[in-house]
């Protein structure tokens, strides 16, 4: 089983554990702010399941109907996660407004807050795991899940402080106000996750730093060629697609041109192991005297 799949399954288990703890905290206290925290955890479970399905699909090999593979499935998962986060935020805002109109007393605050704090600690630990491993494995679904958990951890901390103040002061209106703030924070988080994923679906180029590395590798390892132009990149999940035109001297044999391409591809794969590279070889008179000049 691939490590990405194992982490995605772990997210479901952690999500269910945290959901149970936060639901128990809400049931004990009756706090609408803690209810909002629990509602966000239901989204965590749903998105973890969506991420697992997307990762399994993304790992399928290329076939006749999908010659470039299924890597973009992870971007669809991240978009779905953004939509679900926004829906959860709207539900939280609705509950908060109703509670603001009719404030309710908070019961067993100490025990409820302690349970909620434990759930927050579990989320914080798993958030770090998702972000670190998601970036290492180049998995948009895991990174999106980790970023969402990060906002959950922050909002949970705010809820704990706010509910504690509401209990200590007797200002019951603080409870629904906190829930509203949580809802707004989650709404913003969902929007960021969704827009970041849409860039991947739109075949956005690799980051500037990565593109600079690609150009330097082509320049440094293309001995025997003259230039590379029309360089294009895009990314889909763990895979980076790179294609460009490579100009060689007119007297270069097919075998020698092939050797140059193999050398460039091998060098690029040391930097981007999952890269899929397409090189179009052209004779000297096709040079544009622009793009990447070979050293």
From TrEMBL:
The chain crosses the membrane at residues 7-28, 34-55, 75-93, 113-131, 152-171. The keyword Transmembrane helix applies. GO terms for biological process: intracellular zinc ion homeostasis. GO terms for molecular function: cadmium ion transmembrane transporter activity; ferrous iron transmembrane transporter activity; zinc efflux antiporter activity. Residues 11-202 form the Cation efflux protein transmembrane domain. Signal peptide: none annotated. The keyword ATP-binding does not apply. Gene3D superfamilies: Cation efflux protein transmembrane domain, Cation efflux protein, cytoplasmic domain. Keywords: Cell membrane, Membrane, Transmembrane, Transmembrane helix, Transport. It comes from the Bacteria. GO terms for cellular component: plasma membrane. InterPro entries: Cation_efflux, Cation_efflux_CTD, Cation_efflux_CTD_sf, Cation_efflux_TM, Cation_efflux_TMD_sf, CDF_Transporter. Residues 208-284 form the Cation efflux protein cytoplasmic domain. It is a multi-pass membrane protein. PANTHER family: MITOCHONDRIAL METAL TRANSPORTER 1-RELATED. Belongs to the cation diffusion facilitator (CDF) transporter (TC 2.A.4) family. This is Protein p34. It comes from Paracoccus tibetensis.
């Amino acid at each position: 089983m691939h490590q990405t799949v194992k982490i995605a399954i772990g997210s479901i288990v952690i999500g269910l554990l945290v959901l149970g703890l936060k639901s128990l905290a809400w049931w004990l206290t009756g706090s609408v702010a803690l209810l909002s925290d629990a509602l966000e955890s239901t989204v965590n479970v749903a998105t973890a399941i969506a991420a697992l399905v997307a990762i399994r699909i993304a790992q399928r090999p290329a076939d006749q109907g999908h010659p470039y593979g299924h890597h973009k499935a992870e971007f669809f998962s991240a978009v779905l996660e953004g939509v679900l986060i926004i829906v959860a935020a709207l539900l939280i805002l609705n509950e908060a407004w109703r509670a603001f109109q009719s404030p309710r007393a908070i019961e067993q605050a100490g025990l409820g807050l302690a349970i909620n704090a434990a759930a927050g600690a579990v989320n914080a630990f798993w958030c770090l795991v998702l972000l670190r491993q998601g970036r290492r494995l180049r998995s948009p679904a895991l990174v999106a899940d980790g970023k969402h958990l990060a906002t959950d951890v922050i909002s949970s901390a705010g809820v704990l402080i706010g509910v504690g103040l509401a209990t200590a002061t007797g200002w019951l209106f603080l409870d629904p106000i906190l829930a509203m703030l949580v809802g707004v924070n989650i709404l913003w988080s969902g929007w960021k996750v969704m827009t970041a994923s849409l860039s991947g679906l739109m075949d956005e180029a690799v980051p500037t730093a990565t593109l600079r590395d690609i150009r330097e590798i082509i320049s440094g390892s293309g001995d025997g060629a003259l230039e590379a132009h029309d360089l294009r990149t895009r990314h889909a999940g763990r895979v980076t697609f790179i294609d460009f035109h490579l100009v060689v001297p007119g007297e270069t044999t097919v075998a020698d041109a092939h050797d140059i391409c193999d050398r460039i591809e091998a060098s690029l794969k040391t930097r981007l192991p999952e890269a899929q590279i397409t090189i179009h070889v052209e004779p000297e008179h096709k040079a544009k005297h622009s793009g990447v000049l070979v050293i």
